[in-house]
Design a protein that fits this description.
single chain, 405 residues, alpha/beta, Rossmann fold, formyl-coa transferase, domain 3, 2 domains, 11 strands
């Protein structure tokens, strides 16, 4: 079992009915903080997050894809068949001894299974029940189905990416799912803190759509104030010029540069060798530079195109100008020894995988050591013995009744 006295959520039990990304990511953070997270699945409907992606030739057909392995580490697996009456009864018994239950089914699914928050909290008043549907469990859109792309579209986020005139484009890598998972996680932490004071659990009805809207909050405020849509500005900024991504020497090599002050502008000009075009008075203030962004970008790229992006980065960072080369994901992985976020996790059979850990450290607590994502039903017996004290005979009876599959 995960957890030690040194971990902030040691002793907290989490029943994870999540699937795909949003809810499993939320519970993975809880597991990284030391909670004992039990992932509930069934062999009848496995959670194959990212399962449509091509698997390596010769791989185990039961092997989970990278997306699953990434967001289900540090958890234990329990198979419960919720279509069987014995399985639903078992789920209710587990919830009776659980601190936090997380699910991201469509609205109403848990109620139809007889496992809704109102029923389970009568059995366990300390239970924190978290629902993470696309549009929440109330309102006219509660029954809408959603995925990351739909949520980014309906929240307006897709109209904010890219340059003026570009078609709507989503932020990749299931961005909305991760934002939803983070919101759910800090809601759970608040509910746990409140329970320490009141002794009572809570019901968190989270709308992943509303999480997406919250993430563009400043632009929502601006649109409300100005009564017009905010413009697409691509890589540019409303408070810094130059501010963009510039081509460098070589194929598909780029560097981003963000000049935030007049002092940084002067430093940039000096590094470029004080070119004559930069001496124009209109470039000496932010307001002047704002009015000449296309001209500045064209001149600046004439300089960057002569240099490797790593040299642009080195030269500008040395004089205090924010500049970073654009790296491919493989480049980030290759530099893993330079960053504390990267950890190595053994994955059966003894095959180390590089993963991103928790992006912070705690001065008075440790984080959970990384264990690989569980195989389906790997911990059935251990969990049932530890959580609800079942005997081996009782476990075999549940298996014969079709509850554990």
């Amino acid at each position: 079992m995960n957890g030690s006295k040194g971990q902030p959520l040691a002793g907290v039990r989490v029943l994870d009915f999540g699937h795909i990304v949003a809810a499993p990511f939320c519970t993975r953070i809880l597991a990284d903080l030391g909670a004992d997270v039990v992932k509930v699945e069934t062999s009848q409907r496995k959670d194959f997050a990212g399962g449509t992606r091509t698997k390596p030739v010769g791989s185990d057909p039961d092997e989970r894809p990278p997306a699953y392995l990434n967001i289900n580490r540090n958890k234990r697996s329990l198979t419960i068949n919720l279509k069987a009456e014995a399985g639903r009864h078992l789920a209710a018994r587990m919830a009776a001894v659980t601190d936090v239950l997380v699910e991201n089914f469509s609205a109403g699914v848990m109620e139809r299974l007889g496992l809704g928050p109102h029923y389970l909290q009568t059995q366990n008043p300390r239970l924190i029940f978290v629902s993470m549907s696309g549009y929440g469990h109330s309102g006219p859109r509660r029954d809408w189905r959603s995925m990351n792309l739909n949520l980014q579209a309906y929240s307006g986020l897709m109209t904010l990416t890219g340059n003026d005139g570009d078609p709507p484009v989503a932020i990749s890598n299931s961005w909305n799912d991760f934002v939803g998972g983070l919101h759910a996680c800090f809601g759970i932490l608040q509910a746990l803190s409140d329970r320490n004071r009141t002794g009572l659990g809570a019901y968190l009805d989270l709308s992943q759509f509303e999480c997406s809207v919250a993430s563009v909050g400043a632009l929502v405020f601006a649109a409300s104030l100005n009564r017009q849509n905010p413009p697409k500005i691509g890589n540019r900024s409303a408070s810094a010029v130059p501010h963009g991504c510039y081509r460098c020497a070589g194929e598909d090599n780029w560097c981003v540069i963000a000049v935030e002050s007049d002092a940084q502008w002067c430093a940039l000009v000096k590094v470029m060798g004080n070119p004559s075009w930069a001496s124009d008075i209109k470039f000496q203030s932010l307001l002047g530079r704002m009015q000449c962004q296309d001209e500045i970008d064209a001149h600046l790229e004439q300089w960057t195109i002569q240099l490797q992006n790593i040299d642009v980065e080195r030269l500008l960072q040395s004089v205090g100008v924010p500049a970073q080369r654009v790296r491919q994901i493989d480049d980030v992985v290759k530099s893993c020894d330079e960053h504390s976020i990267f950890k190595r996790m053994d994955h059966p059979p003894q095959n180390p995988r590089l993963v991103a850990g928790v992006p912070f450290t705690l001065s008075r607590h440790s984080l959970a050591s990384l264990t690989s994502a569980p195989r389906l039903g790997e911990h059935n017996a251990d969990i049932l013995r530890q959580w609800i004290h079942l005997s081996d005979k009782e476990i075999r009876e549940l298996e014969s009744e079709g509850a554990l599959k």
